[in-house]
Specification:
There is one protein chain. The chain has 156 residues and is mainly α. It contains eight helices and two strands. Helix 4 packs across helix 8 and helix 6 packs across helix 8.
């Protein structure tokens, strides 16, 4: 019995340490500067640039998928881009867009509020208090922005 316990616990502990050790030393924001070439700089546009927050401008839907999976979202939500088929919470493929319109909110703002304050709006057919209210503090600002970008990119 002890041998089985050690055989399962030691590899899990090593992996946990390695992940924590690797991610713990790379904190902070990485800034990448991209310089436009002379040919692309010559092109001009008359369209106004959209106004976005810094977090939204740097959010990565690809990184958001990893946050979705690692945070256990797929256990409760159906979301095709993540291969998730959970039925405990609302279907993120279809109902999130409808619920955002019902609540008269922009989709990204609605998704973020639903993650950080899950009881602010309860989708029809679901109970209050089921989704944990801890994601606002357990996810970093970058993780939250990436998760929102991922859900928004796949919502219909």
């Amino acid at each position: 019995m002890w041998l089985l316990f050690v055989a399962l616990l030691v590899p899990a502990g090593v992996v946990g340490w390695a992940v924590g050790h690797y991610t713990g030393h790379h904190g902070g924001t990485v800034t990448v500067t991209v310089t436009a070439s002379a040919t692309s700089a010559a092109a001009t546009t008359t369209a106004a640039a959209p106004t976005t927050t810094a977090a939204a401008a740097t959010a990565s839907a690809a990184a958001g998928k990893a946050v979705f999976v690692s945070s256990g979202c797929s256990a409760c939500h159906t979301f095709t881009p993540a291969g998730a088929t959970g039925k405990v919470g609302p279907d993120l493929d279809t109902t999130v867009s409808v619920d955002a319109k019902t609540d008269k909110m922009a989709l990204a703002a609605f998704v973020q509020q639903s993650i950080v304050q899950p009881n602010a709006y309860i989708a029809k057919g679901f109970a209050k208090g089921v989704m944990p209210g801890t994601f606002g503090t357990s996810l970093s600002k970058t993780q939250l922005a990436d998760l929102v970008a991922f859900i928004v990119s796949g919502a219909k």
